[in-house]
Amino acid sequence: MARPSIAKLVPSTVTSAPSAPTLVDAVVPRAREGRGALLRAAALVALGVAALALLAQVRVQVGPVPFTGQTLGVLLLGAAYGARLGVGTVLAYTLLGAAGLPLFAGGQGGIGYLLGPTGGYLLGFVLASALLGTLARRGWDRSYRRMAVAMVVANLVIYLPGLLWLHRALGGAWEGTLAVGLTPFLVGDALKWAVAVAALPSAWRLLGRR
Predict the structure, then answer these.
(1) How many CB atoms lie within 10 A of CB 124?
(2) Residue 29 counted as domain residue
(3) With contact defined as beta carbons under 8 Å apart, do 192 and 70 qualify?
(4) In-domain check, residue 122
(5) Angle at the Cα of 139 (from 134 to 141), degrees rounded to 5?
(6) Which residues pair with 108 in a beta bridge?
(7) How far apart are CA 90 and CA 181, in angstroms?
(8) Hey, which end of the chain has fewer CB within 10 Å, N or C?
(9) CATH no. for residue 101?
(10) Coil, strand or helix: which one is 104?
(11) How crowded is the C-beta side of 118, counted as CA atoms within 13 Å?
(12) What is each CA distance from 21 to 30, 124, 196, in whole angstroms?
């Protein structure tokens, strides 16, 4: 019996070229080129950085890794903005914070925070926004089921470099790293996952009705 090809095992929405507009494209249509396109991108990046900075201040300190609303902002921005704009926004937020602006959790900033125990999670934010933005370009943000899968994978993408970096910073056994950097956040992240999963498809349905 012939084995099915890889292309047949992967949904066509993943293998096809990106073509679907993102949510922000529907709300704030793209300018064709020139100054209008540049101003639009700059305004959206500034808005996204401000949103991430505000959500970072919604926090509960749990050991060296605070529980914040930051992750929710990254998930929503990545899916709503698309990969290029989403990654650009998260990078701008990270670089401005590293430069000393008080954008990180607790109003902190500086390169020391970036190199501290939570630095790996910031890298995960960039990777997660790239993943979600790419899937949104393939229409995954229109479906609750696909958004649920995408958000699970995006959370894993955030946790992987975050926990690796934290383990290096703390040393010791992996059980201790997981007890500090994973277990206390599972319930809160599940709530943020549910909000993010519901928000994007619901926003598209609202736009469709209008």
Answers:
(1) 25
(2) yes
(3) no
(4) yes
(5) 85
(6) 104
(7) 21
(8) N
(9) 1.10.1760.20
(10) strand
(11) 25
(12) 10, 24, 18
Residue 34 lies in a domain: yes
| pLDDT tens digits in sequence order for the chain, 210 residues long | 444 443 443 444 444 455 789 999 999 988 776 788 899 999 999 999 999 999 988 877 666 666 778 899 999 999 999 999 999 999 999 999 999 999 998 889 999 988 888 899 999 999 999 999 999 999 999 999 999 999 999 999 999 999 999 999 988 889 999 998 898 888 888 988 999 999 999 999 998 865
Site of tokens 């519901």: 198
Sequential DSSP letters for 36-56:
HHHHHHHHHHHHHHHHHHHHH
Tokens 């430069």 locate to 99
Whether 11 is in a domain gets the answer no
Q: How far apart are CA 65 and CA 189, in angstroms?
A: 13
Query: In whole angstroms, how far apart are CA 185 and each of 12, 69, 122?
Result: 34, 11, 16
The token pair at 82 is: 């698309």
Q: In which domain, by residue range, is 45 found?
A: 21-203
d(CA 200, CA 25): 13
